[in-house]
UniProtKB/TrEMBL annotation:
It comes from Lophiostoma macrostomum CBS 122681. The keyword Coiled coil does not apply. This is pectinesterase. GO terms for molecular function: pectinesterase activity. Residues 174-376 form the Pectinesterase catalytic domain. It comes from the Eukaryota. Pathway: Glycan metabolism; pectin degradation; 2-dehydro-3-deoxy-D-gluconate from pectin: step 1/5. Transmembrane segments: none annotated.
Amino acid sequence: MASGSRSAFSFYFLSILSIFATLSSTLSTEQRHACQSPTPNPLTGCPPNTLLVDPSSASNSTTNSTNVFTTIQSAILSLPHDNSTSTILILPGLYPEQLNITRPGPLTLLSQTASPLSLSSNAVEILFRSATNTSSFDNAFTSVLTVAPTLNSSLTGSGPTGNPVPADTPLGNSNFRAYNLNFTNGFADYSAGPSLALSVSYAQTSFYGCAFKSYQDTVYIGKWGSAYMRACEVSGQTDFLYGFGTLWIEDSSLLLRSCGGGITAWKGTNTTYANKFGAYIHASAVRAANSSIAEQIVGKCALGRPWNAQHRSIFAENYLDASIIPSGYIDWSATDPRVSNWTFMAEYGDFGPGWNLTGRVEGNVTRVLNESQWEAYSSPAKVFQYFMSGEMGNVGWIDPDA
Ligand SMILES: *[C@@H]1O[C@H](CO)[C@@H](O)[C@H](O)[C@H]1NC(C)=O
Ligand SMILES: *[C@@H]1O[C@H](CO)[C@@H](O)[C@H](O)[C@H]1NC(C)=O
Ligand SMILES: *[C@@H]1O[C@H](CO)[C@@H](O)[C@H](O)[C@H]1NC(C)=O
Ligand SMILES: *[C@@H]1O[C@H](CO)[C@@H](O)[C@H](O)[C@H]1NC(C)=O
Ligand SMILES: *[C@@H]1O[C@H](CO)[C@@H](O)[C@H](O)[C@H]1NC(C)=O
Ligand SMILES: *[C@@H]1O[C@H](CO)[C@@H](O)[C@H](O)[C@H]1NC(C)=O
Ligand SMILES: *[C@@H]1O[C@H](CO)[C@@H](O)[C@H](O)[C@H]1NC(C)=O
Ligand SMILES: *[C@@H]1O[C@H](CO)[C@@H](O)[C@H](O)[C@H]1NC(C)=O
Ligand SMILES: *[C@@H]1O[C@H](CO)[C@@H](O)[C@H](O)[C@H]1NC(C)=O
Ligand SMILES: *[C@@H]1O[C@H](CO)[C@@H](O)[C@H](O)[C@H]1NC(C)=O
Ligand SMILES: *[C@@H]1O[C@H](CO)[C@@H](O)[C@H](O)[C@H]1NC(C)=O
Ligand SMILES: *[C@@H]1O[C@H](CO)[C@@H](O)[C@H](O)[C@H]1NC(C)=O
């Protein structure tokens, strides 16, 4: 065999292997719904070797202890630190714990539910209470769920470039998925310092029918963090989508529990390749969390503010309720505006009472994009980049059907 055809053969062989690897890492929607569906044996319909989290199993001597756990984190810690694929099914309940996923292999967390398309039917809440309301520890330690390979990679740090993550840090989880889970940081019912529900760095993660609840810095997408959310709900008051990485939210709700800072607070990064790190909120609703808070925040909440001058975020084709300030985005602060020609705080096709073109133009801080400007960002494949190379189109870890 000529070496040319041998390498072509290896190429095809490796491609086939990688297709199998990809297929084996994902559940079809039917398989997932079958696993989530309440059945007498909860694992009926689940993939082989699915782990079960059942708090009642602690007092049940007939439970198969090799695959049943009373806490979610104990199930996560039982998994090997390798590239194998795992699924964890979680029974209804309130789980007072902190989750930390460092393993690289694909991992899917599912809650048991008869209504996977209904967020309000979610019956699993993971609740932790922590905030950095003194400066004595990093925001990373407050999060309900952390997906990152190392502690260093998850640290927010300070200054315009944040924590310097060691250069040899590998990609952590390559395909983390969560369905129908609520993550709540219940430290206080007002902004009392960074209080994370989600922290993702050096990892590729996606969320379907999930809720993230806190007041300040609810969702942190750190360096090389990629997160995709669909049919989710994120609640907050201050800078509640923040970070360095790439976040795409669609068909979801952003709930304003009051106003403070902005919704998005991003830090841009200089790289040798073009990057599109930023927060993209598409085809979603931005509104007051309830009618009593709605009356108090009319025209007061900002879409975002620049954590550094290279902030990039876009709100596109969203419904905005009357809570949004006429200028849309705002400066970081009066004394430290952090706005320059690098700052990209933009909107395209937003509508509803919170959309005010006169206010946006007069405010002179929001970029109102035309269709061709939005086109450069208009789908996940145009913004999610491959780890370290920066090549676009890294979306194989997103569930296309959920
Ligand atoms: C217990 O669970 C393990 C892992 O899923 C499985 O291999 C084993 O057959 C189960 N044992 C019984 C008695 O069900
Ligand atoms: C104990 O576990 C077994 C097997 O999973 C289950 O059939 C049974 O209903 C459980 N009993 C209680 C009291 O939860
Ligand atoms: C997982 O796969 C990646 C990419 O193929 C590889 O670099 C890494 O060494 C593997 N990790 C483990 C723990 O096997
Ligand atoms: C999960 O969050 C949704 C949306 O806020 C809510 O309707 C549902 O009651 C919550 N469930 C639990 C168990 O917290
Ligand atoms: C931290 O938060 C707690 C609870 O809200 C509060 O009692 C305390 O005063 C706060 N401390 C600081 C330094 O803000
Ligand atoms: C997550 O787990 C890793 C490995 O045990 C640990 O080094 C790290 O400190 C944990 N991260 C957080 C934020 O607690
Ligand atoms: C973590 O990063 C800091 C720099 O932020 C460095 O000083 C420290 O040595 C790193 N620790 C580890 C265990 O890599
Ligand atoms: C409305 O939302 C605010 C902010 O979360 C909360 O403090 C208040 O209790 C809520 N009111 C009602 C009636 O739910
Ligand atoms: C990136 O480069 C620009 C232009 O040199 C500079 O103004 C900016 O401060 C740099 N940003 C970061 C985060 O290093
Ligand atoms: C911002 O302006 C500086 C100085 O005019 C220029 O060098 C730089 O390329 C501009 N940056 C962007 C993102 O346009
Ligand atoms: C729109 O913005 C302009 C300029 O800030 C302001 O005068 C006007 O009241 C706003 N309209 C509404 C409906 O908020
Ligand atoms: C708008 O802001 C830019 C800086 O971002 C400034 O150069 C320009 O003069 C401002 N325009 C108006 C009309 O205030």
